[in-house]
């Protein structure tokens, strides 16, 4: 009897305990479900760029999930370092949506919970350049900037210049140097270099020698001095990634320029040297006069790639000769009026190589052609036989054959004339005259000797 009472008491306590536990557990869940379906976030509640004002927790989670998928799909992230630019994978950006929802503060602007492992960031940096590492740049600041777009859930295209995260990366160096002989323009070029020691080449903008340099001078340069300056500047920028927009050359290669490196400038004829700097940072052209030579230096941040110049297709063309016949000169007498000048042609290629020396591309920069200048020779009216043969392609055999055929025709005509004379009575006086004429006729040419002598005599 006593045991039954204890069992009843235990059963009653068990049922009461189970009721209280179930009510507190499932009742709380039911209560929260009921409350969540009715309670919404206050006005001004944001998760990144997503406005969840007046939304329930479930609705906010749905909006955040959709915006996260959009960011992963459409966002593009690039790392740039000097001339190099690569795309960065987004798979290492981890979005924690439950943590984002649970950390929402109603009525405030909130950020999405996103993480980027350190090892993944190090791998991204090394993929840009072998010279880069997490130790020589401000990695924490780079990581913080990378997470801004993701935590804001703002899709787009983002480029991160790694130079800005490297202390001292803005230090300028001498990229290339070129010089031309000042010649007769040394004085005015020296005055120019003193008055204009340097000029800046803007980032991602075209540079005009006329607009940015020559037009700003108080004392204008002569045409030849402008060309000497343009040649030096052109040669200085060739070993870079600058794009040549406009360039001119002379009809003849001047003595101060190398073949393939000339640039002609003339403000009166609107002949300009124009190029563009595609980089995100500026460069400087520095001018100086050293031993009567104009020196131009290209200053700026060192390039990641190496730029070399290659010459191909270099050829020389001998000038042709123009012969002027002048009666003032006797036969076989010649005088050189103009020696002429050989023509030249050359192609200049710019070869781009990466840090390991692998060639990335080769681009044709210019194809310069200087036409030959004819040589002019004065000579007498007599033309030697070899020259006639070369011009008319007449050989001795052909000339002999022609003379023999002419002789046969003459002999046939003579025989016909003789037969006709036999049939007619010829007076003795006429026979004597004909005999005298025949004695003076050359048997080969059929022309009187006196007449041939007059033809071959030189005209004075």
TrEMBL record:
The keyword Membrane applies. InterPro entries: Vancomycin_resist_VanW. Residues 390-432 have a biased composition (Acidic residues). Residues 390-460 are annotated as: Disordered. Keywords: Membrane, Transmembrane, Transmembrane helix. The chain crosses the membrane at residues 7-28. Residues 433-443 have a biased composition (Polar residues). It holds the Pfam family VanW. This is G5 domain-containing protein. It comes from Peribacillus deserti.
